[in-house]
Each structure stands twice: as structure tokens, then as C-alpha cells.
Amino acid sequence: MDDLLEDTPSGNFPFAFADDTTFAAQGSTVSECETALQPAADLLYSWCSSWKVSLSHTKSVVSFFSRNPREVNGKVVQKIFFGATQVPFEATPRLLGVILDSQLTFGAHTTEMKNRMSKRLNVLRCTAGRSWGRHPSSLRALYCTYVQPTVLYCASSWMSSLSENNLMKLEAQHRAGARVITGCTKSTPIQALLKEAGLLALSDQGDIAAARLRERALRDLQRTPVAQAVQRTEGPTMRSEVTRTTRSQAQGQRQHSRCSWRVAAETVAKSAGLDKITVEPMVQGPPPWTDCSKVHFWPDLDDMAPTPSDSSRTFSARLAAANRAIATLPPADLHLWTDGSVAANGDGGAGFALFIRGKLRLSQAHPVGQGVAELRTEAEALRLGLQAVLDLQDYSTFQGIRVLTDSQSLVRRLASGPARQSDSTCSTIWTLLSTASVQNTVNVQWIPAHVGPCWYRRKRHCR
């Protein structure tokens, strides 16, 4: 379907997810949207004819969204033709499981979510009572996995736009679930009820979901529609910013306002201080089909048996075990020693020393930042060292790479594979490892810290 999306006429915004495709157009009036959207329908008809594809007519509808009360609620119907057939109009279309309406109040979606929660709460009530049934912890786990996800699905995009009345419909079901978990009565104060059940208000969970979506979009290097929406600076487009105050908010919780998900996410980010932190972009690791069979990790020293009661024997046992582990590695021309640390004041530093055939070629030290974790400094040291190895002008003349680090947790995290990395630094490390493994075999060995004077002399270049 790439050719269909790439050839979309100007003025249209295509959205595709799996086999669901949506074409959108924007204009001042309904007629302008019809004029802009009909060429996209014609393109889709010709594409289906050329590829012998038939659309599902029961799932293909046309709809529009407007703030003009003279156009909503079916008062104006768009006429879009798919070939000679007019596409049926739907006032409340369903898009990826979310029911939309002409004014984006999500009233119909709220009603459906309320009914779903009510049915599932009836199932939950069959497993508990005030004096019998499952343990509260089991009930909470069941509620969080069976009932609550129904309303939190895509909550980042629609829950912040709910009015006070619609939000109260969902909150009432949420509190009913909290009473099933705790066995409390209806007269229990809402704040105490939710705290006893270990639950957050749905409005807060929706705002948190919006904030997470915003953070992911800011870190995405691709210019996706959600990433572009996050960076918009225009004011709110709602007809009014209606302040909604629920009973739980009246007891000390913060107030909410009917707004877009972006405004709600920015409010949470400012409250958490995330707006003052530099956004770190997500870096994708090597693709799944990359051959990484020449990268090996050794996170343990199986034959090391130190004696805790004798510190000298502990150091000697560590040193002997480390030397035996290095001796068992395949021969290599490049030896990369990396180290990272965090000072008492919170300043992080990373460094590496590169030995080529037993001689020191390069050693560097770099600051990592204030208040960083020690694992981050170790990862940054390894990233800098691998980049320095690949930047060598005579890199192609060497055979074999040994990477030695005293961070066992870093070696184990990298050993889980490129697809399991959750931060950009480790993803970048895997990209560098895959690049280096094209020509050389890379062995990453964990080495215990502080094992003897000879290792101090080598590792002092990293500190």
C-alpha cells in the first residue's frame, strides 16, 4: 500500500494502520472538504481496480467534524463517491476501536465504555463479597487487567477532551470497582477509597497516558503525524475551556479542563519537571535481520571462587579468574578497556583506553552529566570506545576485538539482544557492535573491578 499512500493528492492526509486506511481533508466548509476528498476516493478506486482488491462496504464510511451547530448531528451530509457508488455517511464512525462524533465530545464512546465496564464489574463482583471471596490484592490485579484496560484503551487521545458529565460516568464505574476491591461502602470518601484500593482516578491516568505519548513523540526521529501534533503551538480550538471539578478533586486533587491531549500532556510534563530536561531521541538499533553471530558476551567468571573472609585472597582470586577468562578468549589485536563512574556530588564521567597489539593507542575521558546513574556512565564509556575503534584509519588492518568492562549489568543487558534495548545509548552500542562484527569477531568480557595493581595501571587511563 505504499504506492497508494505516496500518491495521495495534495490537501489530503492519509493514515494507515495494518489494513485500516483513512483519508482526511481540512477546510472551512463541508463543500471544501468534499472537493479535496473526492480525488483521494478516485485514487483509491483506481488502485483497488488495478490490484483486484475489493473494499468492505460495511466498514467504509464518510464522516466529518465541525464546530458549527448547523452542520453537526446529521444536518449536513457529505457526498463522496467510490466509483459510481456513494459512500454511506456515518455520524459516529469507529476508528481503531474509538467512536468519534461530529464535535469530538466522545459522548457515544463514553457510553459504550461505561456499559463495558459495568458488564465486567458484574463478573468481578461474582468473585468477592464483604466477608468472602478473593484477596483484595488478587481483586485489584483482576480489575487492572480485565476491567480498567477497556476504558484506558487509547485514553491518551480522547479522555482529556471529555466534559465533566461524561467523565463522571466513567469515574463512577471506576469507584464501583474500587469498592469491589476494598469492600468499602458508598459513603466512603472518594480519596480514601481510591487510596485504599491502590488506584488513580481515571482522569489522572488519562493525563499520564497523554504525557507518555508526548514523550514518545518528542523522542521519535521520524516526522509522524503525532510528532508534528506535539510541536504545534497554536491555542486551543475548543469552543470553551470548561473547568471540571469532580468530588475527588474537591478534596485536594488538582483541577482539570476540557482540552486537547497535547495541553494535558504539557501540563503533566511541567508538573513533573520534564520540560526542563533535554529530550533524548530514540535511536533504533540494527534491524532484526542483521547477522550478529560474531558478537559474543561473557557476563560471568564461572571459575572464580573468592573467599570473603580474606580480602587478599579475594583480590588474588579475582585477578586469577580474570586472567584465565581473558586467556580463553580468541586472540585479538584490539583491546578496549572502558569504565564509568559517578562522583559523590553526582557528576558522571566515562572513559576508555584502547590498546593495539599491547600498546596504548588512545585514551579519553568525557563528562556524562549531573545526576546520572552509574550504568549510564558505563554504557557511555563503551559507546565512546567503540566509536573510537571504528574511527581508526587503519581499522581494516586489525583482526579481533576484545571489549573489557567492569559493569556486569551492562554486559547482561547488551547480551539480551538489540531488540530488547530500551534506551538510546544501548541501542547505539548494538549498532556499533553490528558494524564492527562485519569484519571482526567482537568479544565483550566482564572483568571484576579492583583486582590488582596491574589492572589499576591499565584502567587508570579510563578514570
Question: Which strands sit side by side, in order, in the main sheet?
Answer: 9-14-13-10-11-12
Helix content: 40-55%
Number of domains: 3
Share in β-strands: 5-15%
Radius of gyration: 30 Å
- How would you state the average pLDDT, rounded? 82
What separation lies between the terminal Cα atoms?
53 Å
Helix segment tally: 16
The chain-level structural class is: alpha/beta
Number of strands: 14
Largest sheet: 6 strands, mixed
Instruction: Spell the H/E element sequence.
Output: HEEHEEEEHHHHHHHEHEHEHEEEHEHHEH
Q: Unreliable segments (pLDDT under 50, ≥5 consecutive)?
A: 238-256, 305-312, 452-463
Task: Indicate the overall shape.
Answer: globular
**Oligomer description:** single chain
Polypeptide structure, described:
This protein is an alpha/beta fold. It has three domains: 2-99, no CATH class; 107-276, no CATH class; 295-462, Nucleotidyltransferase, domain 5, CATH 3.30.420.10. The chain is 42% helix and 15% strand. It has helices at 2-6, 30-50, 107-125, 136-152, 155-158, 164-182, 190-197, 202-219, 225-230, 247-250, 261-272, 311-328, 374-390, 408-415, 424-436, 453-459; strands at 12-17, 20-25, 81-82, 85-86, 94-95, 98-99, 243-244, 256-257, 295-298, 334-342, 347-356, 359-370, 401-405, 442-446. A six-stranded mixed β-sheet has the order 9-14-13-10-11-12. The chain has a two-stranded antiparallel ribbon with strand order 1-2. It has a two-stranded antiparallel ribbon with strand order 3-4. Strand 1 (12-17) and strand 2 (20-25) form a beta hairpin. The radius of gyration is 30 Å and the shape is globular. The model is unreliable at 238-256, 305-312 and 452-463 (pLDDT under 50).
